[in-house]
Amino acid sequence: MRILIFNWRDLTHPKAGGAEVYTDAVARAWISQGHQVTLFTSAVEGHSGDEVSQGGYRIIRRGGRLGVYREARRFWKSEGQGHFDLVIDEVNTKPFGCPKWVSGVPVVALIHQVAREIWFYETPFPIAVIGRYLMEPHWLRAYADTLTVTVSKSSKESLEGYGLHRVHVVAEGMEKSRYLGNSAAEKESVLTLLFVGRLSANKRPDEAIEAFRIVKRRIPEARLWIVGTGPMMSKLVAAAPPGVEFLGRISEVEKVGRLRRAHALLVTSVREGWGLVVTEAAACGTPSFGYNVAGLRDSIVSSGGVLTDRLPSLLASAIVDVVPDLLEGGMAVAPGGVLEWEQVASKILSLVLGGGTGGPVAQLGTHSRTDSPATEIDADCT
User: Fold this and answer.
1) Which of 144, 157, 271, 374 is paired with 244 by a 20 to 30 Å CA distance?
2) CA 359, 149, 349: angle at the middle one, nearest 5?
3) Whole-prediction pTM value?
4) Can you tell me the distance from the alpha carbon of 345 to that of 362, in angstroms, rounded to the nearest whole number?
5) Would you say residue 355 has pLDDT above 70?
6) pLDDT digits over 236-288, tens only?
7) How far apart are CA 158 and CA 151, in angstroms?
8) Per DSSP, what are the bridge partners of residue 50?
């Protein structure tokens, strides 16, 4: 099958996040299953406009932060129509709107989460109000009858609240073997908390630091590691109490090591689609303490962590109450509610091939790598 994915960013983008990790992993899985995959995304300085990724799928980069949506339509009209069997329209706040201008092939909307409250953390008034109550509902109504995949029950309920009728949950993906290990033997000697995420308002890293500040009053030797970068970085560094260490952007290997060595992960987002770092932490033997919000209430409960109401003081109290268990490795956690990436990829295609009902769709098939000009690739392209 020839699959075209539209997503606003790819993994090389400096602001790439969980959606881009998901896209890369599923694309790799489809390649390994014998399909052709093309990712159309925005341009990234220093990277080719047309190359083959390390995962074997083609990446076409055109347009900027907003221009990518216009360029996607142009690409489909001039180069895409007739050369693909399936289009994945990945929605990250502003959608591509593929159901309106893609014809002749099935379109699947891939929506990890809705923005809702995030508008008020990431955009100023009155844009936040317009976005939350006018723009997002208007954008998503176009997907009312489109087969839609999301990653959690919370996101499904939110999308259905916007009028989408064909929403299916396909569990988040994860390469579990990367994280499993003898984590109990690796824990730090003093209480060590960890925050992993973009340092932006919707992730509320300031509230994670405030919770740590409260914990430190009871446990003076406690430490907090902050992994990630973002617009709040300088402000957070200036206001952080002793014991907070800002690690910035680190390698995946170091991230796994920190997850294994920490005693607890703090998760304070406004909302998530799922919150994969929660599951990654659980696979490393580290429980998550986070707010009871959409997405996190799915991932934290599935992994054996602790939910609290949305106050740093309550988050801190929940941690202090179980410090002995944390230091002794007594909290039972496991990476629940997720699948291997190959299973995620297969389940998405099963939904497509069954039309969302489980039955076959005859017009979709598998094609050789040389039958489509839109997916022919120069073997020397890097």
Assistant:
1) 271
2) 45
3) 0.85
4) 19
5) no
6) 999 999 999 999 999 999 999 999 999 999 999 999 999 999 999 999 999 99
7) 12
8) 60
- Neighbouring-strand partners of residue 194: 225, 265
Dmax of the chain from CA atoms? 66
> Is 205 in contact with 227 (CB distance < 8 Å)?
no
Give the CATH H-level superfamily of domain 2-173+339-367: Glycogen Phosphorylase B; (3.40.50.2000)
Q: Do domains 2-173+339-367 and 177-328 have the same CATH topology?
A: yes
Nearest Cα to Cα of residue 179 among 287, 275, 282 = 282
- Helix, strand, coil shares of the chain, percent, nearest 5, are 40, 15, 45
Distance CA 275, CA 152 (A): 10
Give residues with Cβ within 8 angstroms of 168, minimum separation 6.
147, 148, 149, 150, 156, 351, 356
- What are the residue ranges spanned by the domains of the chain? 2-173+339-367, 177-328
Question: Judging by beta carbons within 10 Å of its beta carbon (0-12, 13-18, 19+), is residue 339 exposed, middle or buried?
Answer: middle
pLDDT in tens, 80-108: 999 999 999 999 989 999 999 999 999 99
Determine whether 355 is exposed, middle or buried from the number of CB atoms within 10 Å of its CB (0-12, 13-18, 19+). Answer: middle
Separation of alpha carbons 154 and 142, rounded Å = 20
Cα–Cα distances (Å) from 203 to 17, 138, 200, 227, 303, in that order, read: 12, 25, 6, 12, 20
Write the secondary structure of 268-296 as one string of H (helix), E (strand) and C (coil). Answer: CCCCCCCCHHHHHHHHCCCCEEEECCCCH
Burial 223-241 (b: 16+ CB within 10 A, else e): bbbbbbbeebbeebeeebe
Are the CB atoms for 308 and 314 separated by under 8 Å? yes
Tokens matching residue 154: 């919370």
CATH number of the structural domain 177-328: 3.40.50.2000
Tell me the sheet residues that pair with 91. 111
Instruction: Identify the pLDDT of residue 356.
Output: 61
Which strand ranges, in their side-by-side order, compose the sheet holding 306-308?
A: 244-248, 223-227, 192-196, 264-267, 288-291, 306-308
Instruction: Return the C-alpha torsion angle 140, 141, 146, 150, nearest 10.
Output: 40
Least confident interval from 201-215, 283-297, 358-372: 358-372
